[in-house]
Write a structure and sequence with these properties.
The structure holds two protein chains of two kinds. Chain A has helices spanning 2-32, 39-55, 61-84, 92-114, 140-162, 164-174, 176-181, 186-212, 221-234, 239-259, 265-279, and strands spanning 119-120, 130-133, 136-139, 214-215. Chain A is mainly alpha-helical. Chain A has a domain at 17-221. Chain B has helices at residues 40-47, 70-76, 93-100, 107-120, 122-126, 137-149, 167-182, 194-200, 218-223, 225-231; strands spanning 2-11, 14-24, 29-34, 55-60, 63-64, 78-81, 155-159, 186-191, 203-208, 211-217. In chain B, helix 3 (93-100) packs parallel to helix 6 (137-149). Chain B has a single domain, classed as Rossmann fold, CATH 3.40.50.300. By secondary structure, chain B is of the alpha/beta class. Classes of the chains: A mainly alpha, B alpha/beta. Chain A binds chain B through residues 164, 167-168, 170-171, 174-175, 177-186, and chain B through 48, 50, 70-72, 74-75, 79-80, 82, 86-91, 95, 98-100, 102-103, 147, 151.
């Protein structure tokens, strides 16, 4: 039981990170039906901004996260504007290929500018502390990751459910033309969606930096892919789905590593994905509706 | 109030509207009738700015709005009840109405207008928290009308509000249209149900394959042999 609870805590941290990245995937997909393959790389940029805020500016971890979120919100808006918006009325495959191109551009531009080596956080940036609560080992990293992820998700839920901007985002994702007839600016709403999604990815990037103590230019690829899986698992386009999918994937991976072998971690995770999609093709929370016409 | 002058609208190579002109006087109900594919919806979409005419102009209260962005046109006082209702199906009744008032800043007045929509459509008031995709067709149509009214339009464009509704509901919807008009909103109504539309309209246009083929006061068109034969079933 102790072992189980311990794994659960580890799984929650990892799941929180996946969930935050998955939210951006799903929000962007919900509004423009694009799988933004550059999303994991935006997360990587966020991790670097966080790294440099700590090492160069000496800011604390919370400030670093906020800087990273602001920087990536701007980056996301710019990417949408220059790379995706001109293709909005072309085929979906054209936009998808552009997203892959943007992903490679971000990765190799970072390598070009900062070098391919990984960079290690100084120990002083986030001194590791362990607490023992009823036999469970909890680190301050776990607490930081889980608490900040939950806070961000609550804020996101509030924005989506309660604010005019959030309601406009939902309206545009349901029916773009009807939204325009209400006076909603679709361009502005899509920009806001990219800003919010990218800011969440940046927060996740800083968390990964904290978790593994390092950042590198290709660090966005695997978590980005996993978060994409999480978004599909939960039901792509659905915000609660991304959260559920993220946590399910994170916990699953941790249990496989903990009880089986970490070598099988990804195989099992993707195997479960295939199983779930076989039984429920729209994802865990997805409703069985046909493609919108 | 609204003047559409010789507009040409294309969908790719298809010439959907061919030099179409029409006028809507302030305070009146004008109807545009015609068969499926005649260009009725295209006309409304062009007025709303969703489609751009190749040639011709749309003038509203003396200003040329041909090139105004669709999201700005609502702010000028033109709302649309789109064909097929197009309510935001995953959002609640209340949220749909709030979206109708998206551009308005007067929160108190918006709340009062929501109450008056619920006064007009009590069923919506009972279901204010319900997800609108689960409403019946008639309720969704009422919501679409209520949503358009939330912008406090001076000109209301209605695209086939009777489509797919039971006869009793159709009658109710037309009563509502008359009532909205009597409270000062000008209405441009697109309909396939020519009988009902002509019975409440002041003026009518008959559209065939992108061209106006007949126009005049409704009573006159109702008596016209051509209209009777083609649209009124005898």
């Amino acid at each position: 039981m102790l072992e189980f609870s311990q794994q659960l805590i580890n799984g929650l941290s990892l799941g929180a990170i996946y969930a935050l990245i998955a939210l951006g995937y799903t929000m962007v997909y919900g509004i423009i039906l694009l799988i933004n393959f550059a999303h994991g790389d935006i997360m990587m940029v966020g991790a670097f901004v966080g790294f440099y805020s700590i090492t160069l500016l000496g800011s604390n971890i919370v400030a670093a996260m906020i800087f990273a979120m602001i920087a990536c919100a701007i980056l996301g808006v710019v990417i949408e504007k220059i790379a995706y918006r001109p293709l909005r009325n072309s085929t979906r495959i054209a936009a998808l290929i552009t997203a892959i191109g943007m992903s490679l551009f971000l990765e190799y531009a970072t390598i070009f500018l900062l070098g391919p080596q990984q960079k290690v956080f100084p120990q002083s940036a986030f001194p590791l502390q362990q607490y023992e609560i009823m036999g469970l080992l909890i680190t301050n990293k776990d607490i930081f990751i889980i608490v900040s992820a939950v806070v961000l998700m609550i804020i996101l839920q509030f924005i989506i459910k309660q604010t005019k901007t959030g309601k406009a985002m939902r309206a545009v994702s349901v029916d773009r033309e009807a939204a325009v007839l209400m006076g909603i600016s679709v361009d502005k709403t899509i920009s806001i969606t990219f800003a919010i999604g990218s800011a969440l990815a940046a927060a996740a990037g800083v968390m990964i930096g904290v978790y593994y103590n390092t950042v590198n230019p290709l660090m966005g690829i695997i978590p980005g892919l996993k978060a994409f899986v999480a978004a599909v698992l939960g039901g792509i386009g659905l915000i609660p789905g991304a959260m559920v999918g993220g946590f399910v994937l994170g916990i699953l991976e941790t249990f496989v590593s903990g009880y089986g072998s970490s070598l099988y971690r990804d195989a099992v995770a993707f195997g479960v994905l295939i199983l779930i999609l076989l039984i429920k093709p729209t994802g865990l929370l997805g409703k069985n509706t046909g493609e919108k016409v | 109030m609204l003047e559409v002058k010789e507009i040409d609208v294309y969908y790719g190579a298809i010439h959907a509207l061919k030099g179409l002109s029409l006028k809507v006087e302030q305070g009146s109900i004008v109807t545009l009738i015609g068969a499926n594919g005649a260009g009725k919806t295209t006309t409304l979409k062009t007025i709303s700015g969703i489609l751009r005419p190749q040639n011709g102009t749309v003038t509203y209260k003396g200003t040329d709005i041909t090139k105004v962005l669709p999201e700005k046109i609502v702010g000028l006082g033109i709302s649309q009840v789109p064909e097929g209702r197009r309510v935001f199906s995953t959002m609640s009744v209340l949220e749909n109405l709030e979206m109708g008032a998206y551009l308005r800043k007067d929160k108190k007045e918006v709340r009062r207008d929501i109450q008056s929509v619920f006064g007009r459509f009590p069923r919506l008031g009972e279901r204010r928290k319900q997800i609108s995709g689960t409403l019946s067709g008639g309720e969704q149509q009422m919501l679409a009308i209520g949503r358009a009214l939330m912008a406090r339009p001076e000109l209301l464009l209605m695209d086939e509000p009777s489509m797919g509704l039971a006869p009793l509901l159709v009658k109710e919807i037309f009563e509502i249209i008359k009532d909205i008009n009597s409270q000062g909103t000008t209405i441009l109504l697109v309909e396939q149900n020519a009988n009902m539309a002509l019975s409440i309209a002041d003026r009518a246009y008959v559209l065939e394959t992108g061209e106006i083929v007949l126009q005049g006061p409704s009573e006159q068109l109702m008596k016209s042999a051509e209209v009777k034969k083609a649209y009124l079933g005898g």
